[in-house]
Specification:
It is a single chain. Helices cover 29% and strands 14% of the residues. Helix 4 runs parallel beside helix 5 (135-148). Strands 3-2-1-4-5-6 form a six-stranded parallel beta sheet, sandwiched between helices. The protein has a six-stranded mixed beta sheet with strand order 7-10-9-8-11-12. The longest helix is centred in the last third of the chain and has 20 residues, at 349-368. The chain is globular, with a radius of gyration of 23 Å. The protein is built from 13 helices and twelve strands. With 401 residues, it is α/β, with parallel strands linked by helices. It has helices at 10-20, 28-31, 90-93, 111-120, 135-148, 164-172, 207-211, 237-240, 243-253, 317-325, 335-341, 349-368, 385-391; strands at 43-48, 64-70, 86-87, 101-104, 124-127, 152-154, 182-186, 263-268, 280-286, 292-296, 372-375, 380-381. The chain folds into two domains: 28-157, NAD(P)-binding Rossmann-like Domain (Rossmann fold, 3-Layer(aba) Sandwich); 159-391, Dihydrodipicolinate Reductase, domain 2, CATH 3.30.360. A hairpin with a 4-residue loop joins strand 11 and strand 12.
Length: 401
């Protein structure tokens, strides 16, 4: 019977090779050096969705090297697809064993399926925000990331600069509550165009694969690529798009990474258009401890009277001593370090799911034109079947979570 053989990684091989003979001369690009990263430390990645954002979140991180690109639009992959370094179908790219990380920059209606399939393929994941189009998808991604032991990072980094002291204070439980505390996030306010006419599908675009799990709608250039974010079938408008950047640091600051708002109150026109994102002013999200987060559209700020701030100065002298004795919160792990050490990154799947959930709840309330109540443990809207239909939206066959 043959003994079990362990695969030899490039890292192990290079380490062994250097131990055999110190006199062996290796090229600078192998050993590394100023401005050079040795192959054993290089993290390879492939991009899925090579449009406006593409791999912008990884640019500037010297540890990463792009070796493949995938897009359903041939004009975005630098030549004809060869299923080696240029792909039209992301499933073929996931078959490459030498890809360590996938960078997902497609429209959000694809995010969950691609994240889950990437996890199944053993790839670490860098996913642009918002994490998912609807709430149940996010929980499915979290479960896949945990099941397959991969690393996940959302494509925004504001939480890395958020207040760790205030996070520690709220997390400690020494404050009685956060009633009267109001934090503000902001998003743009752009809308879609209703009643778009059907147009011929360009030869360079696989529109069927672009749609994927989304409902079929006739092609119009206004629905695809950058403008997809203004149509409910593909995204949640700027509220979930750039609103994520300012909301996510607030969620970390006030230690809400494991929960969600219990009440969401919309301020928007109603009824909303059923197909395209419509006008909205803001949404007010209230947590169980009284914290309110107002997500403003930056066009007409909602005034809330009587708000207050909190700090360690609010503690009694005894509680202040308890607070000072507590360890500081662990530093958030940057994505390159997380990939190498197999820790979860600072913007991991669970925290990203919670942030996406809060913003999706805002959109659900806006679309329904009423306040909704949320159970952050069961992850269901309380007593509102119509609202819950937005929590878990059926996918177009044959796609499924």
């Amino acid at each position: 019977m043959c003994a079990h053989r362990h695969p030899v990684t490039r890292r192990v091989f290079l380490g062994a090779a250097s131990a055999v003979s110190a006199a062996t001369i290796l090229p600078r690009h192998v050993l590394g050096g100023p401005g050079r990263t040795p192959p054993s430390e290089t993290i390879t990645y492939g991009v899925i969705g090579n449009g406006n954002r593409k791999d912008g979140g990884l640019q500037g991180m010297k540890a990463f090297k792009r070796i493949a690109v995938c897009d359903v639009d041939k004009t975005r992959i630098g030549g004809e697809p060869d299923n080696k370094s240029r792909f039209l179908d992301f499933r073929r790219m996931l078959e490459r064993r030498d890809i360590d990380v996938v960078c997902i920059a497609t429209p959000p209606h694809w995010h969950a399926i691609m994240c889950i399939m990437a996890a199944q393929a053993g790839k670490d994941i860098f996913c642009e925000k918002p994490m998912t189009k609807f709430i149940a998808e996010g929980r499915a991604v979290v479960e896949a990331v945990n099941r397959y032991g991969v690393v996940f990072q959302i494509g925004t980094f504001g939480r890395f600069k958020a207040s760790r002291e205030l996070h520690k204070l709220v997390k400690s439980g020494l404050l009685k509550d956060l009633k009267g505390v109001v934090a503000r996030a902001v998003a743009s306010m752009r809308t879609g165009r209703p009643s778009l006419p059907a147009q011929p599908v360009p030869d360079v675009l696989d529109y069927e694969l672009w749609l994927g799990p989304a409902p079929y709608k006739p092609y119009n250039k206004e629905r695809v690529h950058y403008n997809n974010r203004f149509y409910w079938d593909y995204e949640g408008g700027d509220l979930t798009n750039n609103g994520f950047h300012s909301f996510d640091p607030i969620q970390y600051t006030y230690a809400k990474d494991d929960t969600g708002p219990v009440v969401t109150e919309p301020h928007a026109v109603w009824p909303q258009h059923p197909d395209c994102v419509d006008w909205w002013q803001c949404a007010v999200l209230t947590y169980a401890d009284g914290l309110k987060v107002v997500v403003d559209s930056a066009i007409n700020k909602l005034e809330i009277v009587g708000s207050r701030t909190v700090s360690a100065k609010d503690l009694s002298s005894e509680d202040r001593r308890r607070f000072d004795a507590l360890p500081d919160p662990p530093k958030l792990v940057p994505f390159p370090e997380a990939v190498r050490t197999r820790q979860q990154a600072g913007g991991n799947a669970e925290t990203s799911h919670r942030a996406s959930t809060a913003l999706n709840l805002a959109n659900i309330a806006i679309r329904l034109g009423r306040t909704i109540r949320w159970d952050p443990v069961a992850e269901q809207v309380v007593g509102d079947d119509e609202a819950n239909r937005f929590v878990d939206i059926p996918l177009r066959a044959p796609w499924h979570l």
